[in-house]
Amino acid sequence: MSEAATDRDPAVQELLDKQAIREVMMRYCRGLDRMDAELINSVYHPDAFDDHGGRTCSGGDLGKSILDWTRELNVAMGSHHITNQTIRVDGDAAASESYYSGFMLERRDGEQRTIQMVGRYLDRLERRNGEWRISRRVVVPEMVRYLPSGPGEPHWHLDARQDPDPSYSVLAEQ
To answer: What pTM value is reported for the model?
Structure first.
């Protein structure tokens, strides 16, 4: 049984579903860059599975698992972006391929290095209780490299990681 509004034009409902799925992807990137485990968890169903290109996570606390791995890799901060996206909706199930690009700042032994990466998120999503979330993700890294350091090295404005981050008050529900 579909949880979509049955009195809507099917083309309109498909557009609404695709937009809701895009917002799931944006919320994931925001959670990752804010290092917010709860926000990351909000994009996954509690029984979800994530093959994250080097580590597999599952269960209701994927956000913490992903952030723990990020910290193990000495990542201090990042900036992740979704670019091209293909979404196929079939009732309460969907498949999505989202290209990502991003940068991460690695701090190790007093040194800083910038990692550049591109790849794809291959997602199965389900609408449960009226909400789209990821049920299965496979991350396909296509390029990961360290940017050269030296005089031309990128300058990072080091986010103070205020708690809470100022974006939470700006985006708070009125």
So the answer is: 0.86
